[in-house]
Amino acid sequence: MPTMTNTNKWDTRTLVTMALLAAIAILLSFLEFPIFAAVPFLKLDVSFTPCAVAGFAYGPLAGFVVGAITAVAHGMISGNWVGALMNIVMVLAFVVPAAFIYKKNHTFKGAVIALVVATLVQSIVSVPANVLIDPLYGVPADVVLDLAGWIAAFNVVKGVVNSVLTMVVYKSISNLITPQKDQVSGR
Q1: Three-state DSSP class for 114?
Q2: Which pick of 80, 106, 138, 150 has the fewest CB atoms within 10 Å?
Q3: Strand 43-44 vs strand 33-34: parallel, antiparallel, or unpaired?
Q4: pLDDT of residue 164
Q5: CA distance 147 to 26
Q6: pLDDT in tens for each of the 187 residues of the chain?
Q7: In the beta sheet, which residues pair with residue 34?
Q8: List of residues 6+ apart from 28 with CB closer than 8 A
């Protein structure tokens, strides 16, 4: 009789940690506020921080899964499915590049580079994403294009805030949540 081996990438501890990070991200997604008076519908929240922490600890797919769960849960609770779709696109644009780069260069410098690139990618993706998705709100694409500068600036600020918080949080908890074999001394 052949022996069966577990081919699951995530063990129970990892899944529980990802669920906890998703729960924290869901709570944080409701703590939102506008930062630019000219575009009060663009609201800053720090829900990408737990998603990025999951991405740094367990890889790009884990970060995206935590972000997608957060967006869907927020959409279900708030009834804002268009916003949920936008958040899924934005978490893909921010968390996945950050986690991928950090996975390749697992140092403090690598984390900084990863988060700078992620902030830039998020800001660049935000304008075409809004052009494609905002018409679902009933906002014409030409109106969205008129606000492109505000949208990009908002996403730079959001990326910087989430990046700084990710650095602080991940540095604090990385050895608690990463498997023993992957821990790096001196963090």
Answers
A1: helix
A2: 138
A3: antiparallel
A4: 97
A5: 28
A6: 666 565 567 788 889 999 999 999 999 999 999 999 988 988 999 999 999 999 999 999 999 999 999 999 999 999 999 999 999 999 999 999 999 999 999 899 999 999 999 999 999 999 999 989 988 888 888 888 888 899 999 999 999 999 999 999 998 887 777 755 555 555 4
A7: 43
A8: 45, 46, 47, 49, 50
Show the tokens assigned to 183: 């821990």
Query: What residues contact 125, with CB distance under 8 A and at least 6 apart?
Result: 89, 90, 93
Question: Does an H or E element contain 36, and which?
Answer: none
- For residue 89, give both structure tokens: 């696109």
- Assess contact for 80 and 89: CB atoms under 8 A: no
DSSP secondary structure code for residue 47 in this structure? T
pLDDT at 175 (0 to 100): 78
Q: How far is CA 64 from the centre of its chain?
A: 7
Residue reference for tokens 């492109």: 148
Under DSSP, the state recorded for 3 is P
Which of 127, 169, 161, 171 lies closest to 33 in space, CA to CA? 161
Strand partners, 43: 34
Task: Quote the tokens at residue 143.
Answer: 């109106």
Cβ neighbours of 108 (radius 10 Å): 12
